[in-house]
Amino acid sequence: MSSARRLLVGVALVGLSVTLGLAVAVSLFLTSSRTVVLVGHDTVVRPTLGGDAVVQTGPLLPDLRFRDVGPVGVDLALGKTEVGSIEELVERYALIAGDPTAPIDKVRSVVVDMAVTAALRGVAVGLLPVAVFLLLGRHRRGELFRGLRTRQGAAAGVLFLALPVLVWQPWESRERTQEEQGEWQTLAELAGPDVVLPDEVRAIEVRTGPVTTQSKRLVLSAIDTYDRSKEFYSTAAEGAADLDLRAAEEGETVALLVSDRHDNIGMDRVARAIGDRVGATVVLDAGDDTSTGAPWEAFSLDSLTAAFEDWERFAVAGNHDHGTFVSTYLADQGWTMLDGEVVDAPWGGTLLGVDDPRSSGLGNWRDESGLSFAEMGDRLADAACAAAEDGEQVSTVLVHDANLGDEALDRGCVDLVVGGHTHVQAGPDPVVGDDGAIGYTWTNGTTGGAAYAIALGSKPRRDADVSLITYADGRPIGLQWVRLRTDGSWAVGEWSPIVPG
Question: Nearest CA to 114 among 50, 41, 18, 34?
Fold first, then answer.
């Protein structure tokens, strides 16, 4: 074979490989789907070439469409969720929309992963002709091409070309559904000239076919909740930048303590703004991020992770974070979930913590089950004192309820115990241990502004707290609380120096 012919064959083979691989990759990508938990729903994500994001909300609420979201569009079919009423569901949508960074990032990462998976499979299929060409060898390739000139070869060629068409079946048609017969209308057109809408939602489109008077009222109510929620928390986050707080000095590390968020994702950006104000680089989560610990509350954990993605992150589960979902989900997102083992802390000291034993399905110390609150406290103290005997005094114990660290303080084995649970700020209270060592206990209020086990709302239901812990030379040296009141005003506690030892 001449060099020119070899080059021609090589170009043709590469062209076939690229064309086949690209066709397979695009086909797999556009026909693929993933099921994820999004905005509290089991949601089926399907990519499209339309460039729009369409949210199918189900039979009771109108579908939504966001135009020109990017070169690749997406279809989101919302499935099962846990909700008490349609009004509660719509309010949840509005509150999540007030800070949509986490769900948007989640959808984007899912679509990118689907594209990468399809591309890899396309490459594999595209390399198949090359592999076959090389495996056949020159002699067998010649026999194959000569065989195509026979009647049997021609019939095989026709069947080979017909195979994609038979799989595709372009003649197949389907009946138009009621959903497809609806028309798209912007929210501004739906609401009418008498309703003032936020600028960022005016262009969102609603499928008007199934929209009833009741569903229109729900949509307008959601817009009102969205507007009030976004305005309240955005204003609070901006105001946090001007708070008179003690910032980290040279050689110091500041950790932000949050607890009892109870699904209030609006406070996440506020808490981050407070941390940025003082130069915090660590977040300690004392639990009760959810109200029930159910998978539908993943939206709350996604929001928390997005807010502090570039910080060092440590957490324990609270008594309302029932079961193992919360701990497992946060661990998968890069959080260090404390489980009774002493770990190195970013401030140079050590950190110890454990999930609250009152969580449903918990109450175990590693593989041992059935431990009570008091027994868990004893085991926590044992771990802290064992570390102290080895010359590693535990600088901080992170628990959901600070009372879980009482025994460790009484034995003089820890510098500081921090928690939440009571929804009321308390401390710092010094505790003199059996050997005269002084440790401190500190309780954060509710970061979510929760009056009960759920804190969703256009503003906190009660005052919302975070705490700032200052460390130097591996040990805590001071604490300060910051409080956002329900009317949007601020209260800041004095920075309280502590001297453990």
Answer: 34
Q: Which residue has the tokens 């064309």?
A: 19
What ranges in 148-175 are assigned the alpha helix state H?
151-168
**Number of other CB atoms surrounding residue 209 within 10 Å:** 16
Report pLDDT digits (tens) over 190-219: 777 777 777 777 788 877 765 555 667 777
H-assigned helices in 318-439: 325-332, 373-389, 406-410
Residue 298: HSE in the Cβ half-sphere, 13 Å Cα cutoff: 20
How far is 229 from 215, CA to CA, in rounded Å?
21
Burial class (CB in 10 A: 0-12, 13-18, 19+), 155: exposed
The count of other CB atoms within 10 Å of the CB of residue 350 is 21
H helical segments located in 321-469: 325-332, 373-389, 406-410
How far apart CA 39 and CA 127 sit, in angstroms, is 40
Coil, helix or strand at residue 394: strand
Instruction: Tell me if residue 157 falls in helix, strand or coil.
Output: helix
HSE-up of 263 (CA within 13 Å, CB side)? 27
Cα-Cα-Cα-Cα dihedral sign, residues 384, 325, 457, 66 = positive
This prediction has a pTM of 0.78
With residue 205 as reference, give the H or E element that holds it: strand 205-207
pLDDT tens digits for range 287-343: 999 988 888 888 899 999 999 999 999 999 998 888 889 999 999 999 999 999 999
DSSP state of 432: E
Rounded CA separation 339/388 (Å)? 18
Q: Cα 97–99–104 angle (5° rounding)?
A: 75
70: left (phi over 0), alpha (psi -120 to 50) or beta: left
Name the residue among 182, 225, 178, 180 with its Cα closest to residue 206.
182
Dihedral sign from CA coordinates of 126, 128, 129, 135: positive
* 32 Cβ contact partners less than 8 Å away, ≥ 6 residues apart: 46, 47, 114, 117, 118
Whose CA is closest to 285, among 307, 266, 261?
261
